[in-house]
Amino acid sequence: MIVEHLKNRGLFDEFRRDCLADVDTKPAFQNLRQKVDNYVTSHLGTQDWNPSINKNQMRNGLRQSVVQSGMLESGVDRIITQVVDPKMNHTFRPHIETAIHDFLSGESREENAVGCNSAASEQTELQEAPSASGPKTP
Q1: C-alpha radius of gyration, the chain, whole number
Q2: Region Disordered: which residues (predicted)?
């Protein structure tokens, strides 16, 4: 429920935009991009090209090869270290704490409102209920 509350407030989109705005300026991203470019160029250089090649198979083979090389995993870890980690305490945490506080205070207000409504309806029922001995006749 809290995650849904954060999503509804647009915090995840805001965090994503904030990180994406920074990512291409960081050395880790530039290094990873260069490594992948070189790897792809090298891989394609070993392929014999002819018009009958199944491009989807070649693309999938290249994708698998890049993933299996492990360069993406280590590169993404470095990107997270350079982009996300510095924003964690100063940008993300205060927004998340505020949203959680708002969520919890809203939840307690709802519980109080439900509690008050049920208490009021119980009191109304007691006032409207006929006595157990039935109507009194003079």
Answers
A1: 31
A2: 107-138
CA 46 to chain centre: 40
Q: Flag whether 35 is in a domain.
A: yes
- Domain assignment present for 109: no
Span 39-86, pLDDT tens digits: 999 999 998 888 888 889 899 999 999 999 999 999 999 999 999 999
Looking at the 3D structure of the chain, how many domains does it have? 1
The size of the chain, in residues, is 138
The first and second tokens of residue 115, run together, are 């509690």
Task: Tell the burial category of 50 from Cβ atoms under 10 Å away from its Cβ (0-12, 13-18, 19+).
Answer: exposed
Encoded tokens for 45: 């250089």
Q: Is the pLDDT of residue 138 over 80?
A: no
pTM (predicted TM-score):
0.62
